[in-house]
């Protein structure tokens, strides 16, 4: 089958690699190289690196809906476009172009968590499970009919770990879809609009821990949900601590939420947490044992003030 693949971040790499094993990937479309990090170095998307490693042709249009881009796509005469976290909205002319349509690998159990941040929000919101939906795209935001889906228990996974598991799952399901659609065995099911939810965009403000309003469970979920977004943030003496892992511990004291009890233990509304991995300003990300060798959080300090 002739495939045009559209994707940008690490989450898209495994599906690209798997599709390329069994089908003809005629073109890989990805976002433009971006300046990242403190040095603002121009870096390519992860999908571009993977595509080049596979010897595939890469196309990085500023606007996928431009006349030039549409002409490039039309000339390929692809059977299907597979879209995985590409990052641009496709106009109807593109959606109608391939024989089998534009197929999206979406990281939630649609219609739940439509939008750009379903993995992070599933964890932060306290969901017990999430999954992958293989959806035929239409002009709405993740509203198309679903062909295949599969669920996974979130348990104690953080956003980095969950993204990897869902990427593997998406790779498996898209191969099944491509086989089934060639054999005429695909049945699409409309989404139930009455139970749809939206995965709100992750912002800088999302990352902040509010010890006065969040209980231990909510703090744990926020920390795990922000692992791939630079960590959750706690204010400490006017600086920002980035927190990547915590452990819930029992504490029946009446201390103020956010108070540093000892070491890396911090009081919460209904107990306490112990910080297991963090990053201080200007320092590297490190586990608690490494941090405690030469650093301390001042006991009695209130995080968030």
From TrEMBL:
Single GO term (MF): methionyl-tRNA formyltransferase activity
Pfam families with a match to the protein in the record: Formyl_trans_C, Formyl_trans_N
Enzyme Commission numbers on file: 2.1.2.9
Keyword Flavoprotein attributed: no
Residues in Formyl transferase N-terminal domain copies: 1-174
Keywords per UniProt: Protein biosynthesis, Transferase
Described function: Attaches a formyl group to the free amino group of methionyl-tRNA(fMet). The formyl group appears to play a dual role in the initiator identity of N-formylmethionyl-tRNA by promoting its recognition by IF2 and preventing the misappropriation of this tRNA by the elongation apparatus.
Protein name, entry field: Methionyl-tRNA formyltransferase
Organism the protein comes from: Peptoniphilus asaccharolyticus DSM 20463
């Amino acid at each position: 089958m002739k495939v045009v693949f559209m994707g940008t971040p690490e989450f898209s790499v495994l599906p690209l690699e798997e599709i390329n094993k069994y089908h003809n990937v005629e073109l890989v479309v990805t976002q433009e190289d971006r300046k990242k990090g403190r040095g603002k170095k121009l870096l390519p998307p992860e999908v571009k690196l993977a595509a080049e490693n596979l010897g595939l042709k890469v196309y990085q249009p500023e606007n996928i809906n431009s006349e030039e881009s549409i002409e490039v796509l039309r000339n390929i005469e692809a059977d299907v476009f597979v879209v995985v976290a590409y990052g641009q909205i496709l106009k109807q002319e593109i959606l109608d172009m391939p024989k089998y349509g534009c197929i999206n690998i979406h990281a939630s159990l649609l219609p739940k968590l439509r939008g750009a941040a379903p993995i992070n929000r599933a964890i932060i919101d306290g969901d017990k499970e999430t999954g992958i939906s293989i959806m035929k795209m239409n002009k709405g935001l993740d509203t198309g009919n679903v062909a295949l889906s599969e669920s996974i228990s979130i348990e104690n996974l953080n956003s980095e770990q969950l993204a990897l598991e869902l990427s593997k799952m998406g790779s498996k399901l898209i191969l099944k879809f491509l086989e089934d659609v060639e054999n005429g065995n695909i049945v699409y099911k409309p989404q139930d609009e009455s139970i749809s939810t939206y995965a709100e965009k992750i912002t800088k403000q999302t990352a902040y821990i509010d010890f006065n309003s969040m209980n231990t469970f909510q703090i744990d979920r926020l920390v795990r949900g922000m692992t791939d977004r630079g960590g959750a943030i706690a204010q400490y003496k006017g600086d920002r601590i980035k927190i990547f892992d915590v452990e819930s511990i029992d504490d029946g004291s009446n201390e103020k939420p956010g108070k540093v009890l000892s070491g890396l233990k911090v009081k919460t509304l209904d107990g306490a947490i112990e910080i297991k991995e963090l990053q201080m300003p200007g320092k590297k990300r490190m586990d608690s044992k490494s941090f405690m060798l030469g650093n301390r959080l001042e006991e009695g300090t209130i995080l968030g003030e």
